[in-house]
Specification:
Radius of gyration: 22 Å
Number of strands: 2
Largest sheet: 2 strands, antiparallel
Order of helices and strands: HHHHHHHHHHHHHHHEEHHHHH
Distance between the termini: 14 Å
Strand content: under 5%
Oligomer: single chain
Shape: globular
Length: 485
């Protein structure tokens, strides 16, 4: 067995053991609440996962922990799939009336911070079950930040090399040490934001359990709630205002938080993607607010509040809802469908296409138009004061093409399975963009994905993984050349 394969298995083993150890938290919560069947499933699956993960890690422990480019791709894609299986065990065998398809769908939605759910009756579910869903999203959030900051820039995935840290090595051989260093730095910021969010929720009147669970899923821009009414169950105390603030904070690049800690407070506003993100947010809120007020759906104050919350939730891919915006009419439905493809900043917990890729694509288009009008003009492409190479532009355009292709194919497959047009299109979009709720009566903000056929759920589960892993990270595994020495 080669050193790189041993390293891949070692990392996967450690991740499985760590994830399984986290099951002890919901296990004791359910035991205390008298949900013995659920608690037992958490306990035995925790023991099994810890034993299996450590056994694999110890059996293949490599002499060095370097990764080739190929093995880095395998670790990135494989970790989400393997952890999803072990995370699903307590849902499948804990007396929650979830089959394998629904259990896997729910945990994949959690780990990818999508927020699409097949579970109803949340208000009566055991606390450990609800907390496990929040923990999965919280783990997925910090995992994607570290991956986006430490691994994808070195692998050149979808233009992420633009955000390569100055101290990063150009070789993927140092991926693991670099990832560990970044994880340690980011974890403190991530924990601080989560704690601040939980305390703010507590001030608005949320109980301790709800505040902690929602803080974890808010900072992860993930969207699982402890109530069927989602954040709509807590608007009376103003919790939706807290959610809006922290959804926006979690959508900003975490490298800028690191720079802020190091004494560079202007790092945020100097970043063109941050400026672009807030421009999109402001324009979308203004347009959606104007529509709901003009359509006489809400009074002005309530209209701005409701439109702002749900717009921010969709753009950031969080997936909370305070209203069933699927019944606001065709213009609102079309608007939210488009907003699913926005996303936040690179290096944040958000999902979808992300703002910087649109900015790069627009710069490239402008450069091309100028070159057509003035063939001899030299128009260097710069982004945030940094030169943009043709390779980076190709990487961004390649991502956009792949994203659109996966969306088109998955929507067509869902329609062929038997879903109506609205459900097929919005289901493909919301799962690939990791937004959560779709549009229409079935998977809209007031519904769940439970009524869908199992085949559709597996297609959407694949979409969630592909979208969360920046599309190309998964698609490259299906190319013959990737597996050639």
């Amino acid at each position: 067995m080669s050193s790189s394969v041993r390293t891949v298995l070692f990392v996967l083993g450690i991740l499985v053991a760590s994830l399984s150890a986290a099951k002890l938290i919901p296990a004791f919560m359910d035991l205390n609440a008298g949900a013995t069947e659920s608690a037992a499933a958490f306990f035995w699956s925790a023991g099994f996962g810890v034993f299996f993960g450590l056994a694999v890690a110890l059996a293949v422990r490599p002499d060095d922990r370097n990764l080739t480019t190929r093995s880095a791709f395998l670790v990135t894609a494989g970790s989400w799939v393997v952890m999803a299986f072990f995370a699903a065990l307590p849902l499948r065998f804990g007396g929650h009336e979830l089959g394998w398809t629904d259990s896997m769908f729910e945990v994949i939605s959690g780990l990818t911070t999508t927020g699409a759910t097949v579970v109803s009756g949340l208000d009566g579910r055991p606390p450990g079950f609800l907390m496990w869903r929040a923990i999965l999203q919280w783990i997925g959030g910090i995992g994607i930040i570290v991956t986006a900051m430490a691994i994808w820039p070195l692998l050149g995935v979808g233009g992420m090399q633009l955000f390569k840290l100055e101290s990063s090595d150009n070789s993927s051989e140092k991926v693991l040490p670099r990832a560990a260093e970044i994880a340690a730095a980011v974890s403190l910021i991530y924990l601080s934001l989560t704690a601040a969010c939980a305390m703010a929720y507590g001030v608005t009147g949320m109980g301790a359990f709800d505040a902690i669970a929602h803080a974890m899923t808010t900072v992860a821009t993930a969207g699982f709630s402890t109530r069927d009414a989602s954040m709509g169950a807590f608007t009376e105390g103003g919790s939706d205002y807290v959610a809006m603030v922290f959804m926006l904070l979690a959508s900003l690049p975490f490298v800028a938080y690191l720079m802020l800690v190091r004494g560079h407070p202007s790092a945020f506003w100097r970043d063109p993607q941050v400026r672009g993100f807030f421009t999109v947010i402001a324009a979308a809120i203004a347009a959606m607010s104007a529509f709901v007020i003009a359509a006489d759906l809400y009074a002005p104050g309530a209209g701005i509040r409701t439109a702002a919350f749900n717009t921010i939730s969709v753009i950031t891919g969080t997936g909370y809802a305070t209203a069933d915006f699927g019944i606001w009419g065709a213009p609102a439905t079309a608007g939210f469908f488009v907003l699913m493809f926005a996303g936040g900043c690179a290096g944040s917990t958000t999902c979808s296409v992300k703002i910087f890729r649109y900015q790069i694509a627009l710069l490239a288009m402008r450069q091309h138009i100028v070159s057509l009008a003035h063939p001899r003009a030299i128009t260097p492409l710069r982004y945030g004061g940094r030169p943009v190479s043709p390779e980076l532009v190709y990487s961004v355009l390649g991502f956009l093409f792949a994203f659109i292709a996966v969306f088109t194919v998955s929507a067509a497959v869902l329609a062929a399975i038997g879903l109506d047009t609205t459900t097929a299109l919005s289901g493909a979009a919301s799962t690939l963009a990791n937004v959560g709720p779709g549009l229409g009566e079935i998977i809209g903000p007031a519904g769940t994905y439970q009524p869908l056929p199992d085949a559709a759920k597996w297609v959407m589960s694949a979409n969630m993984l592909i979208g969360r892993l920046e599309v190309l990270t998964v698609l490259i595994l299906f190319t013959p050349r990737f597996w050639q020495s």
